[in-house]
Amino acid sequence: MPLALLALAIGAFGIGTTEFVIMGLLPEVAGDFGVSIPTAGFLVTGYALGVVLGAPLMTVLGTKVSRKRMLMLLMGLFIVGNLLSAVAPAFAVMLIGRVVASLAHGAFFGIGSVVAADLVAPDKKAGAIAMMFTGLTVANVVGVPLGTLVGQTVGWRVTFGVVAVLGVLGLAGIAKLVPELPRAEGVRLRHELAAFKNTQVLLAMAMTVLGFGGVFAAITYIAPMATHVTGFAEGSVTWLLVLFGLGMVVGNLVGGRYADRALMPMLYVSLGSLAVVLALFTLTAHNKVLAAVTIVLIGALGFATVPPLQKRVLDQAHGAPTLASAVNIGAFNLGNALAAWLGGLVIAGGLGYTAPNWVGAALATAALVLALVSATLERRDGAVAALVTGWTPAEQSAAVHH
After folding, report:
1. Cβ–Cβ under 8 Å, residues 255 and 194
2. Do residues 385 and 391 lie in contact, with contact meaning Cβ atoms separated by under 8 Å?
3. If you write DSSP's letter for every residue of 46-95 in order, what string do you get?
4. Is 112 within 8 Å of 49 (Cβ atoms)?
5. In angstroms, rounded to a whole number, what is the distance separating the alpha carbons of residues 359 and 362?
6. Quick one: CA dihedral 99, 253, 202, 399, positive or negative?
7. Is 236 exposed, middle or buried (CB count within 10 Å of its CB: 0-12, 13-18, 19+)?
8. What digits encode the pLDDT tens for the residues 17-52?
């Protein structure tokens, strides 16, 4: 594996850390700026919305310049955004910093995946892409808990300063190690946009919004829930986030393993189980041991949906999946924004810190319903096509892929 992949992994590590570390630092940030916890939750919402808008915008701009230069530009945005957050004199300025940093997120993973695959032999492409995404996974196990610990011990501004340094390392690594790759020839925006006319692509993205949104409804407010409801000390939030990160790693591996074997059944099981576990969290949050176990399960079940949902989008966006793939990354963050906002609403409405768990359960249930609708439509369309063409489903699939 070339060293260039290490540079991409460092960038992914920094992006993953800055996205999730804010959840463990909401009380500290809210206290420093004199705002409520629900208001501080807009730092999660703003970042997520920035990814939603930035993923397609930056991906389209990325077709105009070399991939290496685009990756460097994205890392530059990431550094500026985190530095702005670190020195922000007011809450509004920090919110702007979060949005600036978020613009790099979706396109970095979209373009970075293409670069990683181009750096290695054809039989190693999946391993190269996985190596880059390892940075994001490790961020949730190491970067986020350590960033939370640093923020609670030394100050949250130091955390964002350290993340900016990670961005500098990623930028330097990309500049030094990633070769100049030529722009893809024949790429037309209209080909990429055509994928969004496919109902199945849109349904898959809606499942992405609602499914992972369910996870964020609970995890966005994990710090106040753990300290005010469960009775954990503030310092315990760090290892709770470690547990959540470990769950994500396991879920990602399981979801990736079974997505190729039985994609839709994998979605049914993970989304249904996620809805049940989130609903139970309203009860288990009152017991330290049960709460810790539930947090692991939420991470595992939530991330078990990621590989099948991403693969679902790629499978349905035949021939031109780049923009659809980037937009689906934005869809994850749209779900995060929606969930964080709804979670803040129910807390502000006086329903308590466990109320966001019910919001998460409802979102996951809605995603499960869409998965069932999607499968039903797919079977119906397949039956209609079989009547018209006389082909079996297997022959239809072979023709499409050919």
Report:
1. no
2. yes
3. HHHHHHHHHHHHHHHHTTSS-HHHHHHHHHHHHHHHHHHHHH-SSHHHHH
4. no
5. 5
6. positive
7. middle
8. 998 888 778 889 999 999 998 888 889 888 888 888
Report the C-alpha gap between 8 and 157 in whole angstroms. Answer: 25
Least confident of 11-25, 130-144, 321-335, 386-400: 386-400
Helix axis angle, 144-153 to 156-177, nearest 10°: 140
Instruction: Tell me how far apart the alpha carbons of residues 347 and 353 are, in angstroms, rounded to a whole number.
Output: 6
Quick check: 46 and 99 in contact, CB under 8 A?
A: yes
Compute CA distances 151 → 5, 264, 267, 380, whole Å.
29, 40, 36, 53
Alpha-carbon span 73 to 52, nearest angstrom: 18
Residue 186 vs residues 67, 165, 183: alpha-carbon distances, Å: 15, 37, 9
| 272 class by beta-carbon count within 10 Å (0-12 exposed, 13-18 middle, 19+ buried) | middle
* Alpha carbons 301 and 277: distance in angstroms, whole number: 9
**Token pair in block for residue 64:** 């105009």
CA–CA separation, 272 and 284 (whole Å): 18
Report yes or no on whether pTM surpasses 0.90.
Answer: no
Q: Is the pLDDT score of 212 beyond 90?
A: no
**Rounded CA separation 105/89 (Å):** 24
Q: Express each pLDDT in 90-125 by its tens digit.
A: 999 999 999 999 999 888 987 787 777 778 776 665
Nearest-10 crossing angle of helices 236-259, 144-153: 170
Handedness of CA 249, 254, 255, 257 (dihedral sign): positive
Encode pLDDT of 221-273 as tens digits.
888 888 888 888 877 887 887 888 889 888 877 877 777 677 889 899 999 99
Q: What is the CA radius of gyration of the chain?
A: 21
Structure tokens at 276: 């049940």
Q: pLDDT tier at 392 (50, 70, 90 boundaries)?
A: low
Residue 60 tokens, joined:
């389209």
Domains of the chain: 1-187 (1.20.1250.20), 189-402 (1.20.1250.20)
CA-closest candidate to residue 93, choices 150, 23, 46, 155: 46
